[in-house]
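Dear Dr. H.,

I hope your travels went smoothly. While you were away I took the liberty of generating a structure for the chain from your last submission, since the lab meeting agenda had it listed for discussion. I wanted you to have the full record in hand beforehand rather than looking at slides cold. The sequence, exactly as received, is reproduced here:
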Amino acid sequence: MKAHSVTGASGLVSVKEVGKVFARNGQPEVILRDCSFDISPGKLNVLIGPSGSGKSTLVSLIGGYTAPSVGEIVSDGKPIHGPGPDRMVVFQETALFPWMSLLANVAYGPIQNGMQRQDAEQRAAELLDKVGLKGFEQRYPDQISGGMQRRAEVARALINKPRLLLLDEPFRGLDHMSRGLMQEYFLQLFEEEHMTTLFVTSEVDEAVLLADRVIVLSYKPTKVQTVIDVELPRPRSFQMQTLPEFANLKQKILDLLYEEAKKGFASGIAPSANAMTSSATAT
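The corresponding predicted structure, in token form, is as follows:
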């Protein structure tokens, strides 16, 4: 199922019939095939799918770090051909500069783009405050916890005012309590900024708690299985997970993922490259 297109909206990113082939042990392996969806402007779009379904590959493609084998990805109607300041990525592993303070890390991008240091550091301090790091501005990454590093990463991405914020399982590896706190911080930040977001996760609870829309991927070769609108009211809180509506949405997504996972177990092997359109070439 393809996501409904939004026309005339600034910040719209559309993935259009994208396919991606990688070389594995000298053989082509199809990861994505005919994958299409829209990232709705001003919405928190969550991408979820079975293990190995190509979620990180999609982040890399939308970020412009790799190119599709077939199809295209467009931002406000313009094809994406590489990384750009309109799309900022928060990866699974921290990318903070270890030799810089948190304040310097967050202010780095605007300073490099010509902003006066004083103005950049003032904005960086404001964002660190928003993500709960007031008082830690002069700490270095190795002096704070993993959860605090993730908050600083989000602030460093937001200071550049991207049209699209891409987060590839940013809370992966955190303990249960830290992950819950990070979700609450991120919800508060989203509800203040309403930045267009694509958030990748493997956790169904996290997807339902955060999302305006959940994009459910199929087993590979991956396409969009369905798109589910999450109509839980905002602002959201951790306590919402006890609501019947939350449980119903969670079960619906779990059922879809279970069926896709069964396909993976049943196949036992990677799909043949013949499954891809003949115009695909490994990249």
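Two observations you may find useful: The CA atoms of residues 23 and 85 lie 30 Å apart. Residues 1-86+164-283 form a domain with the Rossmann fold fold (CATH 3.40.50.300).

With kind regards,
E. W.
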